[in-house]
From TrEMBL:
The family this protein is said to belong to: Belongs to the SecD/SecF family. SecD subfamily.
Subunit details: Forms a complex with SecF. Part of the essential Sec protein translocation apparatus which comprises SecA, SecYEG and auxiliary proteins SecDF-YajC and YidC.
Location of the SecD export protein N-terminal TM domain: 1-98
Protein name from the UniProt record: Protein translocase subunit SecD
SUPFAM superfamilies assigned to the protein according to its UniProt record, in alphabetical order: Multidrug efflux transporter AcrB transmembrane domain (SSF82866)
PANTHER family the record matches: PROTEIN TRANSLOCASE SUBUNIT SECD (PTHR30081:SF1), PROTEIN-EXPORT MEMBRANE PROTEIN SEC (PTHR30081)
Length: 630
C-alpha cells in the first residue's frame, strides 16, 4: 500500500543530486577581476587580446588566477583586491597609451569562484541585484519631442524631393511644431499634391481646406504614426544603451522601459558613477563621405605629405589612415535599417542598408557620379571619427538599398550592421534621477535577508519536529529539499536575486510547510477515526492532495498575474514566488511521502506511527485503536 517503485526513488535521487550540484556555486563567492573590452566601435577584442593581457601582467610581476575570453571581452581573475587594482593600472597603461583617446575600457569586475568541474556542468551562481551587490541606478528621460521633430524634418525633405520629382511647383514648405505647411502657386496644384500625400506619405494626415485658403495645404503626423516614432525611438535607445553598458562588464544590468518616455538603468557592481555616466552619455553619429583620391590625398594616406585642405585624416579598424572629404554626403539620420547578409553573386558576407527617401536620392546621385572611387562610412564618437569600412563604388545604386561587401567575415558583417543600426541614440536623453548603493550596504542586505530565511527555516523545523515528531522530521527534510531545488532552479535560469526575491523565498517556506501540515493533520484525522496506521498514511496523502493542489493553483495564478503585469522588484518577487510553489508541490508531496514509505512502508504489521499526540474530541465515545504518541 505504502511502497514506492524503484523508479520513483530514482527520480527523487536525481532531483536531489541536481539540486545539490546547481546550488553549490552560490557558496563559493566572487573573485576580484579586471575586464578589458572595446572602448570604440571599430576596436576588436579577440584571442590576441588575451595574449596582450598576459604579457602586460607578466611585465608587472602580476599573476592572474585565470584569464579568459568570453567572446566580447577578456577577463582576468585575481586572488586579492590589491592585485586587482595593480592589474587595472597596468592594463590601462598597456592598452590606452593615449589617455586622451582611450581605445579600450579597463573596468573592475567580480567573477564567480565556481570550480572548473562545476563550470563544466554549466553550473553557475545566481546574479545579485543592485540592492544586494551595490551599484548605480539611473532614471533617464527621453526627449520624445526631439524624436518627433527629427522625423518631421525628414518628412519635409522627402516631401520637397517628391514634389520636385513629380513636377509640382510650390511656394515653399514650412513647419510649425508637428504641422507642415505647403504653399502653392496655383490652386489647380492642390489636388495633385493631396493625391501625392495620400498615396506616398501614409504617416501624414491632410487637414481640411479652410475657405479662402486654397493655396495652402496643411498636413500633420497621424497620431498612430507619432506613437510609432516614439516607440521606435525608445526601443533604439534601449538597444544602444545595452551595447554601451556591455563595455562596463556589468553582470545582468537592468535596462527597462518605465512609462511612455523613461528608461531605468541599474548597474549592479559598478561603483564608478563618473565612468557609468560617461558611457551612458556617449553620442555616436554616422557619416558617409567620399575618400580623397587626389595625389595629395594618397600621399597623406602614405604619410609622405600633409592632409589636403578640405579633407580629414581618420583611421580604420586596422589602424590604416584614410583621407576623407570634410563634406558628409549622408548621415545616420538617413539610415532606417542595417542587416548582415550575403552577396547574392559572390556569396561573401555583406551588410545591407536601407535608406529613407532623401538618403536614397542622394546616394543614387553620389554613386552615379563616383563609380570606381572609394566611399568611407565613418562613426563619430566624442568628436573623433573612425572608418568602419571604405568600399569601392562599382555602379550606380538606387532604390534606397545599399550593400557593403568586400573581404568581410560573417562576424565583421554582424558587428558592422550593429554599429550602423544602433550606433547612435534615436532621441536625446537626460539623467533625471541618480542613486548609488555601496557594496557594504549590499553585503548588509544579503546578511539580513539570508538570516531571515535561515531563522524562519530553523523555527519552522523546530516547531514541526516538536509537534509532529518523526513526521515533522520528514516534513523538515522535504522543506530543505524545497529550498535546495528553489535555489538550484534560480541558478539554472541565471535569475537575478533581489531583496524582494529573498522575501519570496521566506514566503515560499511558509507555504511549502503548509502542505505538510495538511497531510499530517489528515493522517491524524484518519487515526482518530479508527483507521490502521498504514491505511491512515495512505488516506492522509490521498485526501490532502486535492486540497494542496487547489490552494497552490490559486496562489500560482496570483503569482503569474504579478509576473505578467508587474515590473522591476515586483517581477523579481513573482519569479521566485512561482518557482517556489512548483518546487514545494514536488517536495511536500512526493519527497515527504517517499521518506514515509521508506521508513514505514515495508513494516507489514505496523501498530503505531510517530506523528505526535492524536487529539480526540472530549465527547467522542468511539474508542480508537491505540496509537503511539511520541
Amino acid at each position: 500500500m505504502n511502497r514506492y517503485p524503484l523508479w520513483k526513488y530514482a527520480i527523487l535521487v536525481v532531483a536531489l543530486l541536481i539540486g545539490v550540484i546547481y546550488t553549490l556555486p552560490n557558496f563559493f563567492g566572487e573573485a576580484p577581476a579586471v575586464q578589458v573590452s572595446a572602448g570604440k566601435a571599430t576596436v576588436k577584442v579577440d584571442t590576441g587580446t588575451v595574449t596582450k593581457v598576459e604579457e602586460a601582467l607578466a611585465a608587472n610581476s602580476l599573476q592572474a588566477a585565470l584569464v579568459q575570453f568570453d567572446g566580447n571581452s577578456v577577463k582576468a581573475r585575481f586572488n586579492s583586491t590589491d592585485d586587482q587594482l595593480k592589474a587595472r593600472d597596468a592594463l590601462e597603461r598597456a592598452f590606452n597609451t593615449d589617455p586622451a583617446n582611450p581605445s579600450h575600457v579597463v573596468a573592475l569586475n567580480l567573477l564567480p569562484r565556481t570550480p572548473a568541474w562545476l563550470a563544466s556542468l554549466h553550473a553557475a551562481p545566481m546574479y545579485l541585484g543592485l540592492d544586494l551587490r551595490g551599484g548605480v541606478h539611473f532614471m533617464l528621460q527621453v526627449d520624445m519631442a526631439a524624436a518627433l521633430d527629427r522625423r518631421v524634418e525628414t518628412l519635409v525633405g522627402d516631401l520637397r524631393t517628391a514634389m520636385r520629382d513629380k513636377g509640382l511647383r510650390h511656394g515653399g514648405l514650412s513647419r510649425s511644431g508637428q504641422q507642415i505647411e505647403i504653399r502653392l502657386r496655383e490652386a489647380d496644384t492642390r489636388q495633385p499634391v493631396v493625391n501625392l500625400l495620400q498615396d506616398t506619405f501614409l504617416d501624414l494626415l491632410v487637414a481640411e481646406a479652410t475657405p479662402g485658403d486654397d493655396l495652402v495645404v496643411r498636413v500633420s503626423m497621424r497620431p498612430e504614426a507619432a506613437r510609432r516614432v516614439q516607440e521606435q525611438a525608445l526601443k533604439q535607445n534601449i538597444t544602444t544603451l545595452h551595447n554601451r553598458i556591455n563595455e562596463l562588464g556589468v553582470a545582468e544590468p537592468v535596462i527597462q522601459q518605465q512609462g511612455a518616455d523613461r528608461i531605468v538603468v541599474q548597474l549592479p557592481g559598478v561603483q564608478d558613477t563618473a565612468k557609468a555616466k560617461d558611457i551612458l552619455g556617449r553620442t555616436a553619429t554616422l557619416e558617409v563621405r567620399m575618400v580623397d583620391e587626389s595625389a595629395e590625398g594618397r600621399a597623406a594616406e602614405r604619410g609622405t605629405g600633409p592632409v589636403p585642405f578640405g579633407s580629414e585624416r581618420h583611421l580604420d579598424r586596422e589602424g590604416r589612415a584614410v583621407i576623407t572629404k570634410r563634406e558628409a554626403m549622408l548621415t545616420g539620420e538617413n539610415l532606417t535599417d542595417a542587416q548582415a547578409g550575403f552577396d547574392s553573386q559572390t556569396q561573401e558576407a555583406a551588410v545591407h542598408l536601407t535608406l529613407d527617401a532623401k538618403g536614397a536620392r542622394v546616394f543614387r546621385d553620389v554613386t552615379r557620379e563616383n563609380v570606381g572611387k572609394r566611399m568611407a562610412i565613418l562613426l563619430f564618437e566624442k568628436g573623433k571619427g573612425e572608418v568602419v569600412t571604405a568600399p569601392v563604388i562599382r555602379s550606380e545604386i538606387g532604390g534606397g538599398r545599399v550593400q557593403i561587401s568586400g573581404q568581410m567575415s560573417t562576424v565583421e558583417a554582424n558587428d558592422t550592421a550593429l554599429l550602423l543600426r544602433a550606433g547612435s541614440l534615436a532621441a536625446p536623453m537626460e539623467i533625471i534621477e541618480e542613486r548609488t548603493i555601496g557594496p557594504s550596504l549590499g553585503a548588509e542586505n544579503i546578511e539580513k535577508g539570508f538570516n531571515s530565511v535561515m531563522w524562519g527555516f530553523a523555527v519552522i523545523v523546530l516547531f514541526m519536529c516538536i509537534y509532529y515528531a518523526l513526521f515533522g522530521v520528514f516534513s523538515s527534510l522535504a522543506l530543505g529539499l524545497n529550498l535546495l531545488l528553489l535555489v538550484a532552479v534560480l541558478s539554472m535560469l541565471q535569475a537575478t536575486l533581489t531583496l524582494p526575491g529573498i522575501a519570496a523565498m521566506a514566503l515560499a517556506l511558509g507555504m511549502a510547510i503548509d502542505a505538510n501540515v495538511l497531510i499530517n493533520e489528515r493522517v491524524r484525522e484518519e487515526l482518530r477515526n479508527g483507521a490502521s496506521p498504514q491505511a491512515a498514511i495512505h488516506a492522509g496523502y490521498e485526501h490532502a492532495w486535492a486540497t494542496i493542489l487547489d490552494s497552490n493553483i490559486t496562489t500560482l495564478i496570483a503569482g503569474v498575474a504579478l509576473l505578467a503585469f508587474g515590473s522591476g522588484p515586483v517581477r523579481g518577487f513573482a519569479v521566485v514566488h512561482c518557482i517556489g510553489i512548483l518546487t514545494s508541490m514536488f517536495s511536500a508531496v512526493l519527497f515527504s511521502r517517499g521518506l514515509v514509505n521508506l521508513w514505514y512502508g515495508r513494516q507489514k504489521r505496523l501498530k503505531s506511527v510517530s506523528i505526535g499526540t492524536v487529539w480526540k474530541p472530549a465527547n467522542d465515545a468511539v474508542k480508537t485503536p491505540a496509537v503511539k504518541a511520541d
